[in-house]
UniProtKB/TrEMBL annotation:
Gene3D superfamilies registered for this protein in UniProt: Hypothetical protein, domain 2
GO process annotations (BP): base-excision repair, AP site formation; DNA alkylation repair
Record-level GO cellular component terms: cytoplasm; protein-DNA complex
Entry GO MF terms: alkylated DNA binding; DNA-3-methyladenine glycosylase activity; DNA-7-methylguanine glycosylase activity
Entry protein name: 3-methyladenine DNA glycosylase
Family annotation (InterPro entries): Alkylbase_DNA_Glycosylase/TA, DNA_glycosylase
Highest taxon in the source lineage: Bacteria
Alphabetical keyword list: DNA damage, DNA repair
Taxonomy of the source species: Bacteria, Bacillati, Actinomycetota, Actinomycetes, Pseudonocardiales
Length: 305
């Protein structure tokens, strides 16, 4: 007999758009840690200070959000529901300086930047996404979760897993990294982060540039990776993923009609500081994308090397 869930019913003072606010946490359709079932419920498997847990979220017709949670991490997950869904996000002072951003904001009035409040779970996939295609990174993420993450507690959809803990990451031997398609530089960064994982959680409390700076003390975590973590762990509105293969082109074509490099994107986004990432998020959520021409990153299989 399965354990009864811990429950919470939260009525936010704003309209919650679950698919949009949770989208940055989802690593592809086959993500083993975040799923949406046929009834529209969202399921999140996560590590917390009190253990692994599964969180189920469902939006009610009256605007309230029903949350249920299972496992040792149930209570922290329920406590974090408001922040996860953007309750701590503050867009006051944000001004759309370009027509594309203004249009996206009108189209997506419910967009908010959510925060998990925890670094480790979002750090792993961020490191895996360094300098490889999304396909490669998602494949490695699924493999690591399947082999080294425990099953999601409670009645989660089949196949859901909790991300590997720092101890699990430290236990992985070289040939299993190889099987998961993770090269030496990314596995080294993950192992280095796992050794100081408890200290890195402080970044979500420091927030902003100071939090990102703390993350960058780990060898192998640079500006791009720290920004990707910050966007999800504390909903950082200014953490732009400089060094990304796609984002400068998305921002450039949307705002000035041509592809940009990092320097050009920095200049174009400067008027949006300290909410530059919010402008980028509006463009991404509204469907702006990199033009479908030009060279593409090759898909590599490190398992065969």
């Amino acid at each position: 007999m399965s354990e009864p869930p811990a429950t919470r019913r939260w009525r936010p003072p704003f309209t919650v758009d679950l698919p949009t606010v949770l989208a940055p946490l989802r690593r592809g359709k086959g993500d083993p840690c975040l799923r949406q079932d046929e009834s529209g419920r969202f399921w999140l498997a996560a590590n917390t200070p009190t253990g692994a847990g599964t969180l189920m979220l469902r939006a009610g017709a009256d605007g309230a959000v029903e949350a249920r949670a299972w496992g040792g991490g149930a209570e922290p997950l329920l406590e974090g529901v408001p922040a996860l869904l953007g309750a701590d996000d503050d867009d006051s002072g944000f001004v759309a300086h370009h027509d594309a951003v203004a249009w996206a904001r009108r189209r997506l009035p419910t967009l908010r930047l959510g925060a998990t409040g925890r670094v480790w779970d979002v750090l792993i996939p961020a490191v895996l996404e360094q300098k490889v295609t999304g396909y490669e990174a998602r494949r490695s993420w699924r493999e690591l979760c399947r082999r080294f993450g425990e099953p999601a507690p409670g009645p989660a959809p089949a196949g859901m897993r909790v991300p590997p803990t720092p101890a699990a990451i430290r236990s992985i031997v070289d040939w299993n990294w190889h099987k998961a398609g993770v090269d030496h530089s990314r596995r080294s960064a993950l192992i280095a982060a796992a050794r100081v994982a408890h200290r890195l959680e402080r970044a979500a409390t420091l927030r902003g540039a100071e939090g990102r700076s703390l993350l960058r003390h780990v060898p192998g975590i640079g500006v791009w990776t720290a920004a990707e973590i910050a966007q999800r762990a504390w909903g950082d509105p200014d953490a732009v993923s400089f060094g990304d293969f796609h984002i400068p082109a998305i921002v450039g074509h949307a705002l000035v009609g041509r592809a940009l490099d990092d320097e050009g994107m920095h200049a174009v986004l400067a008027p949006y500081a300290p909410q530059r990432q919010r402008a980028v998020r509006y463009l991404e959520a509204a469907g702006y994308s990199r033009p479908r021409f030009g060279p593409r990153m090759p898909v590599r299989d490190y398992r065969a090397i």
